[in-house]
Write a structure and sequence with these properties.
Elements: H1 2-12, E1 17-18, E2 25-28, E3 32-35, E4 43-52, E5 64-71, E6 77-84, E7 93-98, E8 101-111, E9 127-133
Parallel strand pairs: 1-3
Antiparallel strand pairs: 2-9, 3-4, 4-5, 5-6, 7-8, 8-9
Length: about 130
Amino acid sequence: MLCVVACTKEKNTTPILDAAFNQPFTLRYTQRASLPDQQAPELIVTVTDVLDKRCPSCGDGGFVTTDLRVEDQQGSAQTVTLCLYCGPEISDTLTLRANRRRYGLRLHQVTPAPLAGPASLKKEEKHVVLSVQR
């Protein structure tokens, strides 16, 4: 019985990605990126939610938001929201302070876009393209 639980748990594990500053990287829902690497992480970014309300068949285009958890070297965490096509309410870029410096986060893209309507794909199927400027 333990083997079955261990095997199932292993399949659901999302690998931690090593990502470079100033370069786009892609994360899936709940996946984490260690910047610049896992050996000496300066920041750890995790996709905690994806809300895709784009609707090509609706005619209005819609929007897509991504919630991120950003953890610094001391383990302090911040939650931020980035949005594509939201207008001035929520931006696709922001600046945050961590490790006594400023970082710029940018949401470049969320794929795949829904084909039929906003609920046509689950957030587990989404890929979020981000970059962190140092």
